[in-house]
């Protein structure tokens, strides 16, 4: 547990973290683990037309959701997240949906969010988005003027992730789940195969760079280390658990607020009142928000552009024979292909054979002599993007499919497909796990 | 050049709110109209008011007051020039807006009538000048850079990019083979004809006199604070022998410290411990630079020196006052005056100040905060629609101020002190480690019963407030903590804004839609403007040493 998304557990020198009972059994496993022992996965995007909630019980039988206890290696694992419209479709009343965060209720298609993300500006889809706009989303009901929430052809109510040891097993399991749900009116409207291929123990994103190196380390009363010690705040990577998990102390010294549901006959008996107002049960306790965004990387174009750039630099500077496509790519990523950070003297030395990650740019590379400052690459606006942000963005943008829990957490599932096609595609949905 | 920040807050006739909003929107539409005859949006304002950096127009609704119309302006030089340029550029529009406002009940009433009467041609500038409010605390990013210089240096930066680039992908780029000093020489030679001002030295951003004046104002403020704190002790010192005085105040101080100790903890569930920036007990270390106040020896010497100077200056003033009142000679009054001042200072630091803090803490423990401020979804939507369109953003907030003499005294004094200290210390273009604020200020309205905050900042509203919460929560809590509904505070500067989510909700609740907003350099962040300035400063110099050139070249 807590070993990160794509790096093999034995390569992590830190003790891994896990949730303490009873929170471990009340939390989905995907929040704390990337299931690195289960390298194959299928992502099923589900749509439930007038099906009510009956299909959930059937799904629980066909694909039991894995919790975060992780007492033994799982033979296979499953995770489930709902969109706002998905929760409405299973009967959650509007008053309860209102208690979810605005971002979840609005979805990725809220007009201002599209603009802020650079997807759609002044009514025009940007070049980073597939022609005609994304294919799928939660299709949140239009509450504002029609321009506020454009819809997608495909509506997703839930995202089911199925992890297995073998590709065929994962696909077979997905087919079984599909057959189970079909009679109940639930269809798989989109399916993506995900896989994790380790190269000498290192997970790599599509461009070939080591990934999953910089992971948050949660701390708080509900977190214990694998050796049984209580967790302490890591000065570099420490993140209060409440930044990842609802109902726990967050960075603002409060319980991360989540949705709650009235205490009535419809409320589930296993929901707790802990942290909810009088007369309500805490629906969000030990839950998390997840963002699913489908991306496609132009691997060939990426390397071709760097080759062109390197040639140009060499032509401009006869002394720059060392500038190759890989040299440039390292400066785009901030690390070399094996994950070692760029620093003024070259690369930060490995520690125990692994990339060092406890590194402060202000202290050790203030002027970007090792890892270039973003400002060297563009005009005034881009100039202020900090390298810290770039590091974070890089992690998010270099996977074809990235599924992250909210906040700084990226320890959830993160797999990449092997498809490196040439068409651009970008779909997204907000979900609650 | 010195920049000026001011606000004009005018009460609006309730029935005319929609009309006023429409007039403001119409000015926005005119400025953004591609057929306006100007090369780019806001070209009329850009050309007509060349001193203007940022300006906003907002209408704040309120459940407790009639709406107010606020113009916030940040510009170069004195207000007279600015209002004159505004009159020439937007005079008719401003006059129409004034007609939607109430006639002031004070002596500005006749002026209002003269300006707003039908077919009036009386200039509006004097009225706006008369109604202008000075901020209670403010910060100017990129301090000392006038608008023309910011734009010129921005153009120079783009020219350097062009000069350094090599359009031919196959030909060598001569700049790549040069040492930094040579790059400087060549670049300067290439650009000095297009930018002849490179031959002239840059104007001093903050003159020595201004810096000295800023620090003298801080010293004057602290002097008055000490005088205020010393008054109770000085009154008693007149009639009490010093041993009795010390015993009396010693016992009182111990009782107060006991009270403070008992009240030190936050209310259950209301604490928000956050690591604080700035000068704190944790930041004191002998490892720090000797010139820094974070070095214990420097701090101790500095404090003792200031208290010593205070004692002497205050004693001299007290002696001369005594001479004026009694007719005695200086040497007859000096030692009695010094004794009173010294005992007053002692009591002020060890009794009055803790007593005030105890009183404040007593109030804080009984304060109410608003856990879930109501947010109008439509208003939120309107705000979101206007945000994140360029690198900069704007916010305007209006809050009610908590009542009570102590609150108001501390609030006013806190704003004054904060403003003076920020002015004296934030001289490098930034506000400490916050590098995203162009212009921000607080201003009291309605006889101090309400507080307005305006800020023109870089990046998103969320990240801006996160910056405050993480880096400047103490100052922010001091400046805003006496607003009604503000998250629970402790000892005036603790907790408060550290309740991040609650604070953001409170801040958002207090905001209104910025109906009109102008930025003279919408593509430039504070950081980028400083970078432009460093490049330009280097290019103004005919030569640089290799070390200077290497530092200068980092910004290219």
General description of the model:
- Chain A has 433 residues and is an alpha+beta fold.
- Helices cover 20% and strands 19% of the residues of chain A.
- Chain A has 10 helices and 21 strands.
- Chain A has a 4-stranded antiparallel sheet with strand order 3-8-2-9. In chain A, strands 20-17-21 form a 3-stranded antiparallel sheet. A two-stranded antiparallel sheet of chain A has the order 1-13.
- In chain A, helix 1 runs antiparallel to helix 6 and helix 7 packs across helix 8.
- By secondary structure, chain B is α+β, with helices and mostly antiparallel strands.
- Chain B has 18 helices and 11 strands.
- The longest helix of chain B has 35 residues.
- The two termini of chain B are 26 Å apart.
- The model of chain B has no long low-confidence stretch (mean pLDDT 91).
- The interface between A and B is medium-sized, with 28 and 40 residues.
Outline of the structure:
The complex is a heterodimer of chains A (433) and B (556). Chain A is of the alpha+beta class and 433 residues long. Chain A is built from 10 helices and 21 strands.
List keywords for this structure.
heterodimer, A: 433 residues, alpha+beta, four-stranded antiparallel β-sheet, three-stranded antiparallel β-sheet, 10 helices, 20% helix, disordered N terminus, B: 556 residues, five-stranded antiparallel β-sheet
């Amino acid at each position: 547990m807590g070993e990160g998304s794509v790096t093999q557990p034995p390569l992590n020198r830190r003790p891994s973290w896990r949730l303490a009972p009873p929170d471990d059994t009340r939390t989905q496993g995907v929040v704390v683990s990337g299931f690195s022992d289960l390298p194959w996965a299928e992502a099923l995007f589900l749509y439930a037309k007038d099906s009510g909630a009956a299909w959930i019980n059937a799904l629980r039988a066909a694909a039991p959701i894995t919790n975060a206890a992780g007492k033994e290696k799982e033979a296979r694992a499953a995770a489930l997240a709902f969109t706002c419209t998905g929760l409405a479709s299973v009967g959650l009343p509007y008053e309860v949906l209102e208690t979810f965060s605005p971002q979840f209720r609005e979805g990725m298609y809220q007009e201002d969010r599209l603009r802020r993300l650079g997807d759609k500006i002044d009514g025009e889809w940007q070049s980073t988005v597939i022609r005609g706009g994304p294919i799928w989303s939660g299709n949140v009901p239009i509450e504002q003027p029609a321009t506020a929430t454009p819809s997608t052809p495909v509506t997703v109510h839930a995202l089911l992730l199925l992890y297995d040891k073998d590709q065929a097993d994962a696909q077979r399991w997905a087919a079984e789940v599909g057959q189970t749900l079909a009679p109940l009116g639930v269809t798989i409207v989109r399916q993506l195969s995900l896989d994790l291929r380790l190269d000498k123990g290192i997970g790599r994103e599509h461009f070939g760079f080591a990934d999953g190196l910089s992971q948050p380390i949660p701390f708080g009363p509900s977190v214990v280390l694998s050796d049984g010690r209580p967790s302490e705040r890591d000065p570099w990577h420490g993140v209060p658990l409440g930044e990842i998990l609802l109902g726990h102390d967050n960075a603002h010294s409060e319980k991360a607020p989540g949705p709650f549901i009235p205490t009535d006959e419809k409320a589930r008996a296993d929901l707790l009142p802990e942290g909810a107002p009088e007369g309500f049960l805490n629906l969000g306790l030990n839950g998390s928000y997840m963002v699913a965004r489908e991306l496609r990387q132009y691997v060939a174009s990426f390397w071709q552009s760097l080759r062109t750039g390197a040639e140009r630099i060499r032509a401009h500077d006869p002394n720059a024979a060392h500038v190759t496509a890989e040299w440039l790519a390292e400066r785009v990523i901030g690390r070399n292909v094996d994950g070692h950070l760029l620093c003024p003297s070259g690369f930060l030395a490995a520690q125990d054979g692994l990339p060092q990650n406890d590194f402060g740019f202000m202290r050790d590379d203030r002027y970007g002599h090792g890892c270039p400052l973003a400002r060297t690459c563009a005009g005034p606006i881009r100039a202020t993007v900090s390298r810290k942000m770039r590091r974070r963005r890089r992690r998010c943008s270099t996977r074809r499919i990235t599924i992250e829990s909210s906040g700084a957490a990226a320890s959830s599932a993160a797999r990449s497909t092997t498809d490196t096609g040439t068409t651009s595609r970008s779909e997204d949905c907000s979900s609650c796990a | 050049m010195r920049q000026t920040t001011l606000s004009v807050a005018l009460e609006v006739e309730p029935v005319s709110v929609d009309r006023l909003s429409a007039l403001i929107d119409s000015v926005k539409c005119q400025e953004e109209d591609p057929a306006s005859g100007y090369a780019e949006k806001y070209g009329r304002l850009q050309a007509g008011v060349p001193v203007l950096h940022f300006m906003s127009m907002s209408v704040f609704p309120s459940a407790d007051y009639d709406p107010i119309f606020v113009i916030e302006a940040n510009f170069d030089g004195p207000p007279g020039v600015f209002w004159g340029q505004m009159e020439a550029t937007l005079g008719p529009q401003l006059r129409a807006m004034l007609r939607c406002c109430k006639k002031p009940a004070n002596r500005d009433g006749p002026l209002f009538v003269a300006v707003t009467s039908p077919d009036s041609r009386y200039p509006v500038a004097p009225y706006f000048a008369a109604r202008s409010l000075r901020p209670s605390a403010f910060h100017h990013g990129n301090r000392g850079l006038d608008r023309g210089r910011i734009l010129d240096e921005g153009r120079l930066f783009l020219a350097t990019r062009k000069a350094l680039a090599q359009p031919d992908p196959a030909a060598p780029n001569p700049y790549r083979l040069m040492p930094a000093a040579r790059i400087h020489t060549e670049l300067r030679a290439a650009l000095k004809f297009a930018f002849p001002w490179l031959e002239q030295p840059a104007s001093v951003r903050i003159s020595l006199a201004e810096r000295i004046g800023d620090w003298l104002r801080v010293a004057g403020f602290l002097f008055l604070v000490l005088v205020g704190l010393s008054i109770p002790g000085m009154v008693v010192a007149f009639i009490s022998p010093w041993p009795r005085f010390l015993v009396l105040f010693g016992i009182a101080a111990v009782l107060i410290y006991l009270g403070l100790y008992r009240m030190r903890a936050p209310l259950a569930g209301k604490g928000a411990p956050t690591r604080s920036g700035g000068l704190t007990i944790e930041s004191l270390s002998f490892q720090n630079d000797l010139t820094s106040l974070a070095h214990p020896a420097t701090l101790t010497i500095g404090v003792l020196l200031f208290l010593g100077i205070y004692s002497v200056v205050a004693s001299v003033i007290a002696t001369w006052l005594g001479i004026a009142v009694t007719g005695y000679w200086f040497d007859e009054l000096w030692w009695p005056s010094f004794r009173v001042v010294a005992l007053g200072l002692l009591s002020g630091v060890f009794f009055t100040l803790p007593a005030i803090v105890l009183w404040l803490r007593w109030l804080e423990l009984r304060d109410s905060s608003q856990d879930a401020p109501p947010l109008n979804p439509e208003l939120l939507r309107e705000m979101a629609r206007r945000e994140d369109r360029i690198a900069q953003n704007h916010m305007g907030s209006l809050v009610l101020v908590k009542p009570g003499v102590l609150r108001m005294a501390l609030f006013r004094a806190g704003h004054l002190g904060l403003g003076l200290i920020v002015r004296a210390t934030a001289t490098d273009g930034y506000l400490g480690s916050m590098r995203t604020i162009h212009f921000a200020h607080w201003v009291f309205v309605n006889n101090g019963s309400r507080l307005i905050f305006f800020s023109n900042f870089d990046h998103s509203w969320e990240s801006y407030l996160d910056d405050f919460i993480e880096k400047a929560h103490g100052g922010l809590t001091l400046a805003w903590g006496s607003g009604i509904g503000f998250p629970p505070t402790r000892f005036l500067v603790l907790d408060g804004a550290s309740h991040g989510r609650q604070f953001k909700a409170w801040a958002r609740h207090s905001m209104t839609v910025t109906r009109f907003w102008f930025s003279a350099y919408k593509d430039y962040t504070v950081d980028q403007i400083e970078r432009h300035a460093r490049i330009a400063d280097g290019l103004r110099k005919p030569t640089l040493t290799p070390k200077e050139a290497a530092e200068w070249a980092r910004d290219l």
